[in-house]
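Run log, item B.
One chain of 251 residues. Sequence copied directly from the ordering sheet:
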Amino acid sequence: MKTLKNISIALLSTLFISTGLFAQEAEAPKEGVKHNVHENLSEEQKAMLTEQKELKESHREELRETFTEEQLAILENEELSAEQKREQLRATFTDEQKALIKNHKEEMAAKKEEFRATLDKQKHKGPHTKPGIKNALTDEQKELLASQKEEREAGREAIEATFSDEQLAILENEEISMEERKEMLRATFTDEQKEMIKAQKEAVKENRQEFKATLTDEQKKNVKRRMAKKQGKREGVKKQVRDGNKVKGDN
């Protein structure tokens, strides 16, 4: 489905992580991480992302210019939620507007595919060395992780292929928070999708156990040290939040 290419992979991963589907995946990147990722892009890649953003804005304006007074009234009705506006607008779209939206999605999909191709080229040049446990893994362990990652991506694509227009609309709705998207999407899962998610979750669990079985005692110690360090940081953040709330309460 061409429409699926329009979905943010990062968003989907985060959504599925919340259900336990992709527990092995990294957590959603924080602002600092996003900034570092952006800094690692080439000038050409940054320009491509800027072009995508501008194109998206252009598409939005082009579509809005075709709106009737009735559609504008729906769009500007502050008593309606974003989802209600989306549903009511969709019901009023003309064939011409539907064709315009379709063309916009295909154009954006092509741009995103073009950008992804530049990332693939970087991967073929060789991975950047990063400090941490990955450098201590054997070639066999790295190959196992790569194979498991491909399996997770294949499972994710299989689930994405079953998404309805309503579910895609939820994922692409930038007017609601990530948490709201997760809750709304979870409420729309069909029995078939729930079974697929359950199967994928079990496969991820099996993959994790398979990888753990390859770790040496030294690697396990390194993992525990890193997890303990992360846990310490989390507890420190929680304490700061509690102390801050206590100060507000005293005032």
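Observations after the first pass:
- The CA atoms of residues 14 and 28 lie 6 Å apart.
- The chain has eleven helices and no strands.
Flagged for discussion on Thursday.
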